[in-house]
Structures are given as structure tokens and as C-alpha cells.
Amino acid sequence: MDSYLICDETKKAMWLGKPIRGTTDGNAERVLFYHRGSQEDPYNHEDEVLNKILWKFLADNARKTFRVVFSGEFEEDDYEWVGSGDVETEEYLRGWPEG
Fold it and tell me: Measuring CA to CA, which residue among 9, 16, 12 is closest to residue 63?
């Protein structure tokens, strides 16, 4: 099951990856972090390009409401994908953060 960051108002979506689950001190299971790629790939927070995509996504959709959703919880075809898919990474980040 994959996870996505979406903005319903602008119909933009970003793939976060697989939710990595674990337990808290109180033994409650929850999502600890998200990971794109295989076990050999760096963690999302270690991926400089992915971090740029995330920060630009947040800036582009400022003052909007975001949701983190799982596969099947929204109509994927209704959204424009940034950083993969509809708007490729190089195109999405071109000229950013300069303007």
C-alpha cells in the first residue's frame, strides 16, 4: 500500500512511498515514516531532490489543506502528479526556489 500527499483544492499529488509502521512507547502501532524505493535506497529525509519536491509542493499550495492518504482512498486520475508522472522532477523544480 502506497501513501500520497494530496491537495484537494489544487488537485496536486505527490507520492510519499510505503508507510513504514512501528510501535510507540505505549505499544500503539502507527506510521513512523514513509519510504520510496527499495531497502537500498536512501530514506526520504536523506534524498535532497525529494526534499526539494516536498518543499516546493508545500510552497505552491500554501494556505491550502493537505491530506496524507493511502492507495484507494482518492481518485488518483483526478490529480496532477508532481515529481513523478504528470510533471517530471526536472520540470517541476526548474527555476525553484529562485522564482
Answer: 9
What separation, in Å, do the N-terminal and C-terminal C-alpha atoms of the chain show?
A: 35
Tens-binned pLDDT, residue by residue, of the chain (99 aa): 899 999 999 999 999 999 999 987 778 899 999 999 898 999 999 999 999 999 999 999 999 999 999 999 999 999 999 987 678 888 899 999 876
Q: Which amino acid is it at 8?
A: D
Which residues have a Cβ under 8 Å from the Cβ of 22 and sit 6 or more positions away? 29, 30, 32
Grid cell digits, residue 97: 526556489
Phi, psi of 52 (to 5 degrees): -65, -40
pTM of the model: 0.87
Residue environment code for 4-13, b if the CB has 16+ CB neighbours within 10 A, otherwise e: bbbbeeeebb
Residue among 78, 45, 80, 40 at smallest CA distance from 60: 80
